[in-house]
Amino acid sequence: MANDASAVFDTLSPAVSKGSPADPFTPPADSSLWRKNFLLGAATASYQIEGAVNEDGRLPSIWDTFSAIPGKVLAGDTGAVACDHYHRWEADVEMLASLGLEGYRLSIAWPRVMDAAGAPNRKGIDFYKRLLNRLKEKGITTFVTLYHWDLPQHLEDRGGWLNRDTAYRFADYADLMSCELAGTVDAWTTLNEPWCSAYLGYGNGHHAPGLANDRFATQAMHHLLLAHGLAVPVLRANDPASQKGIVANIGRGTADSDSAADQRAAHLFEVQHNAWILDPLLKGSYPQDLFELWPGTEPLVLDGDMETISAPLDFLGINYYFRTNVASDGAHGFRDVPLEGVERTQMGWEVYPDGLRDLLIGFKETYHNLPPIYITENGMASDDEVTDGRVEDTQRISFLKRHLAAVDQAIKAGVDIRGYFLWSLMDNFEWAFGYERRFGVVHVDYSTQKRTIKRSAELVEKFLQERKAKA
Ligand code: GCO
Questions:
Q1: How far apart are the CA of 317 and the centre of ligand 1, in A?
Q2: 424 preceded by cis ω (within 30°)?
Q3: Residue 22: what pLDDT?
Q4: How many domains does the chain have?
């Protein structure tokens, strides 16, 4: 068993670990994070930052439709303006570069780059060309996600991810983008968090398009994964030099007691959150336990689909945020049992770095063909305020430090992890929670669009400078 990451670093006070300079972020001298080729970057997503939803021929997405429905998003917020990144991208790239961040993970808005007939929308495509070219000029490694949840509404009107045809439309979109952007993208990720698209979008209705049916969730998941599988060979053909992968959110489920029923509940939680995505991708089959949780929800799978879905990946993107403590629900499922007295974030999510380490090590044991891993999102929301021009996001600094320590422990246990992206570069539209939840390492004042570098970003920058100086 690896060390306890939480115990290694004191929660809110400066690190005192051996060899570590006395600031509350810099990793200890023996951390793998000091390796020059460990990529450290930040991530965003189109609908969360771009705004400009009606400009240059962009079509409506399911998130425009969903956020316009009263009660769906906190305070009635929408992504109509967001961080106005569509107009401020040049300054935002300068900011990213000035922080010394080496990688940037962004997503393309599908409704910006294709019209309803599937023809290219030049103005939208040119926006991403300018952005990616500038990032390359700055020497920043680019990770581009094709689908971070903003499905064109016209496709949803034809059934969205419940319609198998959407998977083929996605492959067309991947074809267009990889022809247009080849050479400016270091790594393509097909989908961001298909679990969320399927389960939150079609299973419980918390996200767009807002449908709630277990059978829908499994069918949407199958079509999402099929879309991924159809897109990978297209990306390989059009842009052979880039890496191809997918991003999965993963969840740690721990049992509330030693009882067999609670242990089984924790297992089922992780089947529902992790194996549901990773098994089809890496084993070519759906976990049968999933259908014990949701009897009768097996998706319709056609011959050859599982082979398409499980084509080899160059890397796997992992997004990790928190753990969930569960007990048996007395039937064949699980129920959440929130722990008391634990550290939580503004989202109410428990801070639990060991979960990241344990899951990564567990995946290596379970999946013998586990590809190299990038942590494509990790971070936390806090109620940050600017005081005298500064944002002291103390909890985030500690959070990042402890999660990076967990990554280091997983690397030392033999997991091939090549990089880590902070979620997020800047505060942005946090889906159903609107603008109230602040995940950025840069603060955004939404009334003026002023960006203020938070203390966490300053410390990441300082570390990256020190690392560069040592190289
Ligand atoms: C997700 C998305 C991000 C979120 C982040 C915080 O995981 O939900 O990839 O868009 O903003 O995870 O919730």
A1: 13
A2: yes
A3: 67
A4: 1
Question: Whose structure tokens read 């040049």?
Answer: 90
Output the CA 319–ligand 1 centroid distance in Å: 8
pLDDT digits (tens, 9 = 90+) for 116-135: 999 999 999 999 999 999 99
Residues spanned by the domain of 452 = 5-470
- Quick one: DSSP state of residue 372? P
The closest-lying atom of ligand 1 relative to the alpha carbon of residue 379 is 6
Rounded Cα gap, residues 62 and 55, in angstroms: 17
As a whole number of angstroms, the distance between CA 312 and CA 183 comes to 22
Q: Is the CB of 193 under 6 A from ligand 1?
A: yes
**pTM attached to this predicted model:** 0.95
CATH number at residue 145: 3.20.20.80
Name residue, tokens 């599982």.
306
Q: What is the CA(127)–ligand 1 centre distance, in A?
A: 23
Q: What residue's CA is closest to ligand 1, atom 11? A: 430
Contact criterion met (CB below 8 Å) for 411 and 417 = yes
Taking residues 184-197, report their average pLDDT: 98
pLDDT in tens, 392-437: 999 999 999 999 999 999 999 999 999 999 999 999 999 999 999 9
